[in-house]
Amino acid sequence: MMSREFTKREKILLLVMCVLLVGILYFEFVYKPVKANIKKYDTAKLETTLQTEQTKSMSIKKMESEMATNKAGNVGVVYAYNNVKRELKALNSIFSGTSSFNLEFADPVKDGDAVRRNVTITFTTGSYSSAKAIVKEIHNCKYRCLIRTISLTSADSTVNGTMQVTFFETLYGAKNSDGLQEADSATTGTTSTTTTN
């Protein structure tokens, strides 16, 4: 057998090879699996997803609560088409306590069996509390409507208000459909009524 001692150069080369082998083994069998497990159990993405789902859940609960409140509350009824006389009578009653008001009716718009009648309302009243009461009365109107915009401004001892309200009607049970515009070809024709008290 040949038995000889390694030279200094060979010893250094063997030592470098052993260190490289240990480094490769460490990288393959320790570092990579640990990194993969950390990535696998990274909770940041899960926390973001959980937070999004909790927000959705709260939103859904809020909507369900609001729907239950509206079912129990006084929500307007959708009447058959051409209910404008009754709507006008209700609006006149609501605004009877104001200094002045103006109702501007757009042409009714048909969308399937539903009819939308947009009304732009301007009014002047004595205080914010009376303006708030007016908004509440319109919201609780017995004829189904949606308050789309509200603008209140104070001037001296009066409050000026502008509202855009949409009244809803249906073609079920309607005697006619005269004067209706189709939803996609609706014009901006309007009828205006002004009253000063």
From TrEMBL:
Keyword terms of this UniProt record: Membrane, Transmembrane, Transmembrane helix
Transmembrane segments: 12-31
Superkingdom of this protein's organism: Bacteria
Protein name listed in UniProt: Type IV pilus assembly protein PilO
Organism name: Aminicella lysinilytica
